[in-house]
Amino acid sequence: MPSLHELKHSLGGIWLLVKGDARGLSAFDISDRGVARSFWAFFWCLPALLFLWLDQRHEHLAAFPDSQETTASFIAKSLVAGIADWLLPLAGVFVALALLRKRALFRTLVVICNWGSVAAVYIGAAVLLAIIFAPDATGDRWWVVSAYSLYALLVLYIAFLFIATWRILRIVVGGNPLGRLTIIVAMSLAWALLEPIEKQLGIYVP
């Protein structure tokens, strides 16, 4: 399993790419071994993912109070969905690069996506934590302000992910912005398949 130092080194490379510095590419090993090791990023995400799954379990029980699903079973199914959630965007990247005739970049983007997902997952967990522990607002007006503030926080998170992905792709893929948009759309469409998977597993929260 990659060390904490290697994780920090990879995240440093991600940050350089987000800032528009192509030197960030030097942080990534795109050899066969490097690509394989980058999937260890999923295990680095497990603490944050477990927190997210437990919150989803709470929401699932609220939506389906008569559910007989045990927490252990729910988490096991969430792990399956989490693996699918990790691999589906990579499949989308592969399809997009094939359409763009840039399949040679697939290894690079796999490594970057894997390590970049660590930052995305932990930032997402932090956003959820802020929402969960946000102080209760008193009065209708303050409730509206609080609700919109939390909604704005979520929108900012999604916007940050889009901008970061766009800036990284500008360095890695280059060329016409339409090519970068194609990759992002392909990743998003692949992510959309997660909902039917969660429904099939019985862990979907409407």
Please outline what is shown here.
The chain has 206 residues and is mostly helical. Helix content is 76%, strand content 0%.
Mean pLDDT: 91
Q: In one word, what is the shape?
A: globular
Q: How many angstroms does the end-to-end distance come to? A: 36 Å
H/E element sequence: HHHHHHHH
- Give the C-alpha Rg: 19 Å
Quaternary organisation: single chain
Low-pLDDT sequence parts: 141-145
Percentage of β-strand residues: under 5%
| Structure classification | mainly alpha
Describe this structure in words.
- The protein is mainly α and 206 residues long.
- It has one domain.
- Helix content is 76%, strand content 0%.
- The two termini are 36 Å apart.
- About 2% of the residues have low confidence.
List keywords for this structure.
76% helix; mainly alpha; 206 residues
How is the topology of this model organized?
Blueprint (H helix, E strand, L loop, with lengths): L3 H15 L13 H7 L2 H23 L7 H29 L6 H27 L7 H33 L4 H15 L2 H8 L5
Helix pairs in contact: 1-5, 3-4, 3-5, 4-5, 4-7, 4-8, 5-6, 6-7
